[in-house]
Write a structure and sequence with these properties.
Blueprint lengths: L10 E6 L8 H6 L3 E7 L3 H11 L3 E3 L2 H5 L6 E4 L6 H10 L3 E4 L7 H14 L3 E3 L7 H11 L6 E9 L19 H9 L5 E9 L4 H7 L5 E8 L5 E7 L8 E8 L2 E4 L8 E5 L8 E4 L35 H4 L1 H13 L8 H19 L5 E2 L14
Parallel strand pairs: 1-2, 1-4, 2-3, 4-5, 5-6, 7-10
Antiparallel strand pairs: 7-11, 8-9, 8-15, 9-10, 11-12, 12-13, 13-14
Length: 386
């Protein structure tokens, strides 16, 4: 944290996948404990374009060759969804720490394989979930941690997105299979785990899309029962066939105050205070920036992009998108390795979050049947993976 004496240890980082992944190159280049060592991309022209622009010398078109480099300490994976789990497993088997963009995996079995490898190798895995480090979530978390919200009574959230025109593998993708953006803040606000889920599908997508993933639903809505808690949460997710502006949301209802994310992008959040006269209960609030939690070298990237001022390479990055979360993600992963502590979310936590979505879709296909989370996704079973 800014103001504290930091270690001078540096972690050699490799980034795989340079569309979204290029966003993180300058963050690792400027982080005082990171060395932006290598990049990897199958398309050699794109690899060299990015490498030349950001002045990264070590470049690979083969992931297998990258993993053979003994100088690499950790790999940050930003490839298509189906590649995440196989590449994370290969990275851990090669003796290197791993981080991946969301989701951790696409099957329960893949999640278990990663948890098992982390336990066997003693290496670290982090799912780089942007919402958990967005300024909006950090504000909600601060309200909870300081007691301003009081006792949490209920949490709900959404992730609504129109995926028309995205790469073909997204066509007909089950909404809850990629639900970590709305599931993770539900669990992250209190630090709880999911015990079981029940999900219903609603509506129907285009016939041509349905067969790809055996997923007919336009929207999937899920109830999550928290483990060892009186809390439950509700999330809903859609990808096709719904008229709605993009939205990630988290609404937290406490006994003292409640925080609701805006309905329309660009509007301010709403904070409700119990006990005030009815017209004064709700007030608009500005969410603060949490750059002070970062080393000074990367604080600016919570509010501005990482490309040059003429915007020549906007295709390399999303600027300060995802609520300014990217420098926080890079920082917490690097410091987990420097200080030999668990990143958040680690393998078990990520498995719990990810399996909520995977099993929710199974529940929807079974008409809302209750499905319990696997034992390997629970923290009390750490070290017991079979």
């Amino acid at each position: 944290m800014e103001g504290n004496k930091m270690s001078d240890k540096k972690i050699n980082i490799a980034i795989v996948g340079l569309s979204f992944g290029a966003e993180f190159i300058p963050l690792y280049q400027k982080h005082p404990n990171a060395n932006m060592y290598a990049i990897c991309q199958r398309n050699e022209d794109k690899l060299n374009e990015v490498g030349d622009y950001f002045n990264v010398e070590k470049r690979f078109t083969s992931y297998d060759e990258l993993l053979e480099d003994p100088e690499i300490d950790a790999v940050h994976i930003n490839t298509p969804v189906a590649s995440h789990a196989p590449q994370v497993c290969a990275t851990l088997e090669a003796g290197k720490h791993a981080a991946s963009t969301i989701p951790m995996a696409t099957t329960v079995e893949e999640c278990e394989a990663i948890v098992k490898l982390v336990e066997e190798t003693g290496l670290k895995y982090c799912m780089m979930e942007t919402v958990l480090y967005s300024r909006e979530f950090l504000y909600a978390k601060e309200l909870y941690d300081t007691g301003e919200l009081g006792k949490i009574q209920f949490i709900q959230g959404s992730h609504v997105q129109d995926m028309e025109g995205w790469p073909d593998y997204w066509e007909g993708f089950p909404p809850m299979h990629n639900a970590t953006h709305c599931v993770s803040p539900m669990l992250g606000i209190t630090g709880d785990e999911a015990e079981y889920v029940s999900c219903f599908g609603s509506g129907t997508i285009e016939e041509a899309y349905i067969a790809k993933y055996n997923s007919p639903f336009s929207i999937e809505s899920t109830h999550i029962k928290f483990r060892n808690s009186d809390l439950s949460a509700r999330v809903y997710r859609s990808l096709y066939g719904v008229a709605r502006q993009y939205r990630e949301s988290l609404d937290v209802y406490g006994s003292k105050k409640a925080l609701e994310w805006p309905l329309v992008e660009g509007e301010d959040h709403v904070l409700h205070t119990r006990g005030k006269p009815e017209p004064e209960i709700a007030q608009r609030v500005k969410v603060p920036d949490y750059a002070h939690l970062l080393p000074k070298e990367i604080q600016q990237y919570t509010t501005k992009g990482v490309y040059d001022d003429d915007n020549t390479h906007l295709s390399f990055a999303q600027g300060a998108g995802h609520g300014g979360s990217h420098p926080h993600l890079a920082h917490q992963f690097i410091m987990a390795l420097v200080e030999d502590k668990q990143p958040y979310p680690n393998a078990i936590e990520a498995a719990n979050i990810t399996c909520v979505g995977i099993l929710a879709h199974e529940s929807a296909l079974r008409g809302g049947e209750i499905i319990k989370l696997p034992e390997f996704t629970l923290k009390e079973n750490a070290g017991k993976a079979s």
